Amino acid sequence: MTQAAVLARRRERLPFSHDERRAWLFLAPVATTLLVVAVFPIVYSLYISFWSIKLTRPHRQPFVGLDNYAQLLADPEFWHAVGRTTSFTVMAVTAICVIGLAVALLLNETFPGRKALQALLLVPWAIPYVANGLMWKWIYDSSYGALNGLLFQLDFIDKYMVWLGDANKTLPLIANAFVWKEVPLAALLLLVTLKSIPADLYAAARVDGAGALQRFLHVTLPALRPGFMLVIIYETMTAIRHFDLFFILTEGGPGDASHVLSWRIYVETFRNLSFGTGAAMSYILAIVTFALAYGVIRALGRNVR
């Protein structure tokens, strides 16, 4: 057997080719980094959710199994937080879908200044959440806020209002700040979907005598299903676990009016120093989020090509 044949047989026995081994060598630093900063925290947080870990008593950390989860599910305050999170998510995602659709339909038309408007649309989305929260905190301020000043000048109010001090207005006001930032992304996703609708469908609908409203209901909306699926999944996941605006605008107040799940996780973990319960609550939130995403995909993903 020649030397070339021997080398060829050795290469066949190797699980990876030379190029594949070189590729794995280059990917190893990235894979290691992901394991350290992403996979390990996820696995470790699941591990500590089965233990009673409190930094107020660091030397006593008993294994409690599913007791942390059972304790949370039996806590009325936890379910109140679930209700607030649900209200915030429904308000925010509904408004994002409606306003995003309106903006996408507008930008799908041809008019002077459309390109400039598309560029300006990206500004709210590009602003970091912390900067967005500080901006809306200034707008809602009871002493010198822009909202009070505008409404007072227009004679809609006769005195300055304490907007974030009213428990009935807190969640809608925070949802408004969230919607303002998230609408641009939703509008762009829906606009891309609008651009992909074949013009032949509208031409055929006109031939059949369909008016503008009928074309919208029977052509545009069904074709927008993939875009709406992406928007609903992404915005629902973002709204359910959103924390920044609640921390910056109200810090859970007034009272417990804005104690959503993300805020309770923060309080339980970093203020009460109960890492076991906080991790358990985080996993409940993650499971619910993925279940909702799966439900949306099952409901809207049918017949999507």
Give a short synopsis of this structure.
The chain is an all-alpha fold and 305 residues long. Helix content is 73%, strand content 0%.
What does this structure look like?
By secondary structure, the protein is an all-alpha fold. The protein folds into two domains: 3-48, no CATH class; 68-300, MetI-like (MetI-like fold), CATH 1.10.3720.10. Helix content is 73%, strand content 0%. The protein is built from 14 helices and no strands. Helix 4 (76-107) runs antiparallel to helix 11, helix 8 (167-195) packs antiparallel against helix 11 (225-240) and helix 11 packs antiparallel against helix 14. The termini are far apart.
Write the layout of secondary structure elements.
Blueprint lengths: L2 H11 L4 H31 L18 H7 L2 H32 L6 H13 L2 H11 L6 H8 L13 H29 L3 H9 L4 H12 L1 H16 L3 H7 L10 H11 L3 H26 L5
Secondary-structure element string: HHHHHHHHHHHHHH
Count of individual beta strands: 0
What is the CATH domain class of the largest domain? Mainly Alpha
Overall residue-averaged pLDDT value: 87
Number of domains: 2
CA radius of gyration: 26 Å
CATH superfamily of the largest domain: MetI-like
CATH topology (level 3) name of the largest domain: MetI-like fold
- The structural class is mainly alpha
- Helix amount: over 70%
Largest sheet: none
Distance between the termini: 55 Å
Number of alpha- plus pi-helical segments: 14
User: Which geometry do the CA atoms define?
Assistant: globular
**Low-pLDDT segments, ≥5 res:** none
